[in-house]
Amino acid sequence: EQGDHAGATAAIGYAQRSIDDLDGEIRAFALYLLGAGYLVRAGIGQALEDLPAAICHLREAASVLPDDHPGRLVVEARLGLALAKWAIGDPDAPRAGELSDAIRLLGRARQELTADDPVRPRVCYTLALALAIRFTCYAGNESDASAALSELEAILGQPGLDTATTDVCHLLMAFVLIYRSAPEGMRQRPVSIDPGEAGRLLARGVGRPSPDTARSALEHLDQIADLAATEAQYGHLVASLRGVASMSLDDGELAEGHVGPWVEAIDEALRLTPGDDPDAGVLHGMAGLLRAVRATGHPGGHDFGPAIDSLVTAVRQLGDRHPMIPVLNSVL
After folding, report:
1. Cβ neighbours of residue 235 under 8 Å, at least 6 residues apart?
2. Rounded distance between C-alpha atoms, residue 289 and residue 326, angstroms
3. Are 182 and 198 contacting, i.e. CB atoms less than 8 angstroms apart?
4. CA 292, CA 297: separation in Å to the nearest integer?
5. Rounded CA separation 116/114 (Å)
């Protein structure tokens, strides 16, 4: 499973040629090799189109083996990895069922795989990621949030963790902490929040994290070592989480000292971003939301005009299908 693209392709071809003449456990093994080959190739090239084949062959391999067969756990661990990658990989194609199946399989694998199993660290990391995504993007329950934070803490406590994994774990910790108190409508795809909820969020801070939680989230964001690489992979999530956390300090009061710098930082990012860049609309949306929060929290000191201008620009640039649109329209 550490091979290159050519090695994975060769394994796929070998298993495919031999599978028709096999039955029983040896057929299950060939199906496992076939599914694992597609999974490895999907990971090497980030090729989501290989994942349906991986899932199909791994499901069939598992179905051939009895429930108490020792090889079934090995197969189902890889199936959980494939399902999670498939469910999370395309944000425009919600796959709640596949994500829940992945969490079930990965949870069992984490419990039953031995400590020295080479795939166990990957299982633990993917389980934590899947739980965090189900909570923040699929309106998961509190048990998802608690489990995600627990799994992420356990991973961060391991010695010799690489920088990329450490940074993503800190980012996910901040993501879950900040969204833990958010309304359910803000924790699903697409975001669904009515104007009344939006008004309460802006005017009274309903759904914002507590100051202590915000400080914890900021501590995790401050520990991201390679900020450039993290932002390249996750867009402007780091900046948006930092902005929400900053607005939640000072016992829930909207301090200009926290909101103002982030408005300025986003404005500076916009000056450096071409107008036709897809990120420009997201930045305008973030700036509009921050300006709306600032104007609503301190109506005597800030004009609503700049907030409205930023929000209108964002809505025009992002288009009707972008997940930010319902929130931006509600705030408008």
Report:
1. 279, 282
2. 12
3. no
4. 8
5. 5
Tell me: the pLDDT tens digits for 42-75?
888 667 899 999 999 999 999 989 888 989 999 9
Helices (H), the chain: 5-18, 24-45, 51-64, 70-89, 96-112, 120-137, 142-156, 163-179, 195-204, 211-222, 227-234, 237-247, 256-271, 278-297, 305-318, 325-331
For 189-232, the pLDDT digits (tens) are 655 555 555 555 555 555 678 889 989 999 999 999 987 787 77
Which amino acid does the sequence have at 64?
Answer: V
Taking alpha carbons only, the member of 134, 120, 148, 279 closest to residue 220 is 148
What are the CA-CA distances from residue 269 to residues 275, 281, 304 (Å)? 11, 12, 21
| Both tokens assigned to 67 | 């429930």
**Mean pLDDT of all residues in 101-126:** 95
- Dihedral of the alpha carbons of 44, 322, 148, 158, in degrees to the nearest 10: 40
138 SS3 class? strand
Cβ atoms of residues 186 and 324 within 8 Å: no
Residue 202 region, left (φ>0) first, then alpha (ψ -120 to 50), else beta? Answer: alpha
**DSSP letter assigned to residue 208:** P
Distance CA 166, CA 223 (A): 9
Structure-token pair, residue 145: 């949030």
CA distance 242 to 258: 10
User: CA 128 → CA 62, 87, 112, 149, 173, distances in Å?
Assistant: 23, 14, 16, 8, 10
How far is residue 104 from each of residues 10, 41, 236, 317, measured CA to CA in Å?
31, 24, 31, 39
